[in-house]
Amino acid sequence: xxxxxxLIALSGLLAATAALGVVLTWQQGRARPxxxxxxxxxxxxxxxxxxxxxxxxxxxxxxxxxxxGVHRTLAEIADRHEGVRHLDIDxxxxxxxxxxxxxxxxxxxxxxxxxxxxRTRFGGAPSRDVLELELNRLIGQETRV
Length: 145
Hints:
Elements: H1 3-27, E1 31-33, H2 42-45, E2 54-60, H3 67-80, E3 84-90, H4 95-100, E4 108-113, E5 118-123, H5 128-139
């Protein structure tokens, strides 16, 4: 392979990598509605119960740099809404849970309804405003300030 062909191949590879990076960054923290209606049993997660109105379920790992900030945000949001619970599941030693729920990055957050059905999924660190919007849409409650 001559030098020109190698440079063209390298340029194409760099362009494809950059495009993939842009797509993945664009999807970070975005709400994705969930089509399957799996109902999560709290005992499977090691929890005693879910929230009466909704649950903010966070998947974290020990080495996740953004997980503590997302944990604080979710806990604050849950505290401001009656009947909403925040659960943080560390999947470091629970690869079975990560595999079952297709958790490929942390933090990953699910918004569950009162029955435990997954309604919305966030990959990466979601913004507080989008979380509030999704939760209010689900429970039909205005945010208390």
